[in-house]
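Usage example:
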Amino acid sequence: MSMTATAGRAHADPHHIGVVIEHPGPAPKRIVTAYGFWVFLLSDIVMFSCFFAAYAVLVDQTAGGPRGSEIFEQRNVAIETVCLLLSSFTCGMAGIAADVRNRFWFYLGMAVTCLLGLIFLVIEFREFADLVARGYGPSRSAFLTAFFSLVGCHGLHVSAGVLWLLTMMAQVFAKGFRADILRRMMCFALFWHALDIIWVGVFSVVYLLGSGV
Amino acid sequence: MSDQTHMQAEHDLAPGDEEQHGVGARILGYVVGLALALLLTATSFFIAGTDLVWQPSIPVALIVLAIAQMGVHLVFFLHITTGPDNTNNVLALAFGLMVVFLVVGGTVWIMAHLNQNMPPMDQIMQMRR
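Running the assembly step on the lines above writes:
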């Protein structure tokens, strides 16, 4: 955009970023809501960083129990990763469908997202149950405590996300694509994509780095 | 009613919102993001399991790949860009990242030094007797 910094308009662009705003007024509610939710997501990521830090400190404190390389199964993790990645994509598709108010593609995208999220949760739950059954529960060693809390916390977030997803489908079914429903849908999409970002950290730091050591 | 306004050109962009594009362009963005993310994921899993690469470089490569994939997710899925209408979102992200690095880096740093300056645990147990 051209810099039209005449005397009268100079204060309209105080940071000289090239966008002259005359009298913008308060931002629309969609922007305020999404920005607030974005700040919440960042605080959620900060919380996860504490779990990551605890895991990094405790990863070698196995107390005679198993190391990561002995209990991680790469094949399961690969399936989980692909599930979450594809679900992020279908969630984006559902978001676009909501914006153009296409019910069929919205329901289809959300249903596929839900299915992929559930597959992820089932695989993770079976991994946890298998570890506990072999005596490698969270109380076995500090390493396993950190592992279960980090991965379990992410799993809890995904569970909450699936519940939220079903709520969004019900709300669209009952109330249609109203402005407030679309805002919630946008927040849900942000939440789901952020979970995928955290999973990238989990599978890289916990599973891939852990299985190499 | 400001409730109904979807996006206005003179305002900032909400995180997750894109600049005005057609549906086709938006879907294409997600497809590109998905392809890049799948590629980076496959590379990560390949590098972790192979012995074709110099072994000590593997952890660094994995971390670099993870950061690259997070970047892909931020740009193509969350639509956080460097445009002037995205300044607020980027600044919030930058602050969040700073806290994350302080927490993780500070913890690892301090705990590594503590471990270095502590005698091994069996010696402590002997001293207590």
